[in-house]
Amino acid sequence: MKIENLIETVCSGNRTQIISAGAASAVFFAGDTQVLEFGRIKTGGFDEALGLPEKLRRHAANDRLSVEADSENVIPFGCEYRVKRHWKLAGNVWELTCDVAADNGGRITNLELEELVFPIANAKVEYLVYGENSLRCDTGYDGSEMILMLRVTAPDGTQVEFYAGDDIWRHRAAAGIEGAEAHHKLTVNACEVRYTRQVLAFQEDIIPEKRPWRFKSLIAVSSAGKRKKADKSLEIKSCFASGCMHRDFRNFIRRLPDGCGAGITGHFPVLCNDGSHQSRPGREVAHGDLTELFNEWVWASGVLAKKNGFCTVETCNKLFIDSVILANMAKHPEQIVFGDEK
């Protein structure tokens, strides 16, 4: 079966390329200017860039407000490692779900997630280290704790933002595994910004358990367009990852009349430890709710667009008040076209 080399999408003038093989799994553009190269994973001493592509497929929603893409690559060394990615785009916000598994009875011994390279000269850099309550600016970082959010701003005002995902407990798994360590490094210079993420590194005498790993993240590139003013609003008062918040949200959206704009307000993203929100009742499981919110916003935008309405999101979280992800979700998503349709 023939495998596509790349899937190119255009949303509000910004391009993204999802790539089947090579050093980058995806490249993001603001207009025609590259602003982010998203790399590939490394595990067991092998680089996915040397792997073999087995699948790259796309699927667009009927209204073209969202599009999804699936890829699969195999590293043909060691026990063989399989890397699956599921991408979802709407409104210049991308959600990524990356699954890494060791085939043939193997184990994930060391794991470095995709490197982020922002080829932006003289950029302003803002980031939030998990557990801290203020943003760090224009400095590098080298430590064991994860960076929860990273925002890079070009001199012309173009912004790119990375959010590590709601599955914080996975990104911080090394902290709870004896003999495991993590290493996060952010390098800032006049030419580029580079972020590497080694989430698991085991001591030589440690044999890790046999299990696959999944990691989620969000990426956004700033887009044109004004924020819309909602006609009716729903305030989310707790973690949006909880089942009751989803039910309240969907009931609110379904009851809206034709032509109505919905506003969703809250302290997004909430950082929560209630394990029941992640199907682990009775346990403390560190998680957020921004990817949950993104997926429900995509759903609501599709439902309301059929009734000439829209859905916007607004946060009162001071640490994320300037979030690119949330700014894009404060607008109605535009239709997406593929590169081969231009």
Tags for this entry?
globular, 25 strands, 342 residues
Secondary structure layout plus pairing:
Layout: E1 6-11, E2 14-19, E3 26-30, E4 33-38, E5 42-43, E6 46-47, E7 52-60, E8 67-75, E9 81-90, E10 93-102, E11 110-118, E12 124-129, E13 136-137, E14 141-143, E15 147-153, E16 159-163, H1 168-171, E17 180-188, E18 193-202, E19 213-221, E20 232-236, H2 243-255, E21 261-266, E22 272-274, E23 284-287, H3 290-305, E24 310-315, H4 324-328, E25 336-338
Parallel strand pairs: 20-21, 21-24
Antiparallel strand pairs: 1-2, 1-25, 2-3, 3-4, 4-11, 5-6, 5-11, 7-8, 8-9, 9-10, 10-19, 11-18, 12-13, 12-15, 14-17, 15-16, 16-19, 17-18, 22-23
Walk me through this protein's architecture.
The structure is a single chain. The chain is mainly beta and 342 residues long. It contains 4 helices and 25 strands. The protein has helices spanning 168-171, 243-255, 290-305, 324-328; strands at residues 6-11, 14-19, 26-30, 33-38, 42-43, 46-47, 52-60, 67-75, 81-90, 93-102, 110-118, 124-129, 136-137, 141-143, 147-153, 159-163, 180-188, 193-202, 213-221, 232-236, 261-266, 272-274, 284-287, 310-315, 336-338. The mean pLDDT is 94.
